[in-house]
Structures are given as structure tokens and as C-alpha cells.
Specification:
5 helices, rod-shaped, mainly alpha, 75% helix
């Protein structure tokens, strides 16, 4: 009986040390503040895709229809979508915050270009709300990749 008690106590003392020595498996990988990066990337990519489609339709019904500014906004929205695709691909391939961060920076830079126009040219309220959602997602993305909060 004493032998069983001593064995149980030894196991109870040794197990936490053994478990602490195991390599840390950070799955799913977490970014700044423990954020699930894969979820943030997917959410941001989805929002940017929705925004691009809505923006195109709103521009076709706006005073910008047929102008160079409309063309440029459509190009910028496509650049944002492609940038987010690059973020997703890099993250899925590497699962490395440092190696994916520059793709995130590129997406944010494109978002800032779009934001300048969205602030100056008020489009329909639905597209404006979608853009606000994209901006929020881009801020979540910046936080996840430990980049400074975006100054819109």
C-alpha cells in the first residue's frame, strides 16, 4: 500500500514537468493578442471580395460611371482582392507571421488608397457600410500580424 502511494505521488510530481518540457504546438497559429489568424484572413478576404462586387455595381449607378476615376477604383478594388489572395496563400503555405506580414502590409496600403476615394466620394450607403466593414477587417488583420493600427 505504501509503495502504491509513493508511486502515485512520484507520478503526480513528475507529470507536470514532463508535460512542460513538451514542444509547444500552437495550433491554430495565433497572432497578436492570441487571434486565430486563419479566421481573420478568411474574414478579411471574404469582405474584400463582397466589397469589390458591390463597388462595381454602385459605380455603374453613380456619377462616376464611365470616368477614369471609376476605372481606377475598380482596379484598386481588384488589387485589394488580389492582395488578400496573396495573404491567404502565403499564410496557408507558411503559417509564419513574419513571412506573411509583408503581404498584409501590401493589402493595407491598397486599402488606404481606396479609403482616400471612399472618404471624398460618398457612394450609396450600402457600399459605404461594406467599406467600413472592410476597414475593420483590415485593422483586425493588422493586429493579428502585429502591425500598427491603421490610421484611416
Amino acid at each position: 500500500m505504501k509503495k502504491c502511494l509513493w508511486t502515485s505521488m512520484a507520478v503526480a510530481v513528475l507529470i507536470p514537468g514532463i508535460l512542460a518540457a513538451q514542444p509547444r504546438r500552437d495550433y491554430p497559429p495565433r497572432g497578436g493578442r492570441g487571434v486565430d489568424i486563419a479566421r481573420v484572413v478568411a474574414d478579411c478576404e471574404e469582405r474584400t471580395n463582397q466589397f469589390r462586387v458591390s463597388l462595381r455595381a454602385a459605380l455603374d449607378r453613380s456619377a462616376l460611371n464611365g470616368t477614369q476615376r471609376e476605372d481606377q477604383l475598380n482596379v484598386d478594388a481588384m488589387r485589394l482582392e488580389r492582395s488578400m489572395n496573396m495573404v491567404r496563400e502565403a499564410w496557408n503555405r507558411e503559417r509564419d507571421v513574419g513571412r506573411t506580414r509583408h503581404f498584409v502590409s501590401d493589402a493595407i496600403a491598397v486599402g488606404q488608397d481606396i479609403n482616400r476615394t471612399m472618404v471624398r466620394r460618398r457612394l450609396n450607403p450600402g457600399v459605404q457600410r461594406q467599406w467600413d466593414a472592410v476597414r475593420n477587417e483590415l485593422n483586425r488583420l493588422a493586429e493579428a500580424f502585429e502591425l500598427p493600427r491603421i490610421r484611416w
